[in-house]
Amino acid sequence: MAKKGNKRLKRKILIILCLLLILAIFGSVIYVYGVDYYKKYYACPQLALDLNKYPVMGVDISAHQGKIDWKIVSESKVSFAFIKATEGIDFVDKKFADNWKDAKNNNIVVGAYLFFRFSRDGKIQAKNFINNVKLTNNDLPPVIDFELSYGNRLQKYNSQQVQNQLLKCLRELEKHYKCKPIIYTNVQTYNEYIKGSFDDYPLWICKLCNEPSQNISWAFWQYSHKGSVAGIKGNVDVNLFNGGYTEFVDFVYNSHEKKME
After folding, report:
1. Pairing mode, if any, of strands 203-206 and 91-92?
2. What is the pTM (predicted TM-score) of this model?
3. From the CB of residue 46, how many other CB atoms can be counted at a distance below 10 Å?
C-alpha cells in the first residue's frame, strides 16, 4: 500500500511540475509579447513636432477617457475629435452620444469611428455604425479603425478574406453617407492589408516614433498615445492633419462632395 501511495504522490508531483512549466512558458510568451507591444506602440520618446507645418491638432477618444470637459478642450488648440461610436456588429460606446453632442456644442469638428473586428461581417459592422451615427456636411467622414491589435491579434486571419470584409464595410458606409470613409491603421497593418489595395481612401496613420514615411500618403497622423490635453483626464491619443487650417476646411467640405459614381 505504501508503494502505491508513493507512486500516486510522485505522479501528482510530476503533473504539478508539468503544469507549472507550461504556465511558466505561457507567461514568458505573454510577457515578451506585452513588452514588445509596449515598446512598439507606447514607449517612443515625445516627438519634436513642426507645428508650423502641421498646425491642426486633434484627439481621438472613447468611453475610456471618462467625463470630458469639452469647453476646456476647445480652448486647448484642439480643432477636431475622432470619437468612438461602435465596435463589431452590436457594440455601441456608452459615451458616444454625450461626447458627440458636447464636442459639437463647443465648436470642435467631429468624426465618428467604428472599431473593425476581423472576425465579423463587414456589412453588418457598417450597419451597426449607420444605425447610431448621423453625419452632416460639417462633420468628418466616417472612420474605420482597422488594426492588428486587441482581439484582432488572437488568431491568424486569411488576408484576402479580411480585405473583402473591409471592402464590404467601406462600400456600405460610402453608399449611406455619400463620401469616402477614412481608414485608420498602424504601419504594420498598413503594410500587410492596406497598401496598394485601398489607396483611394483617406488614410489616418499611427506612427509614434517619427513622422510617417514620405512613401505613405496620409491625411491624419496619430503621433502619440500619451498626449496631455486640458479637459481630458489622463493620457489621450493626439493627432495632426496633413495641412493647414484652410486645407483642413477644404478636406471636410470636399469629402462630402465626392458622391458615388
Report:
1. unpaired
2. 0.81
3. 10
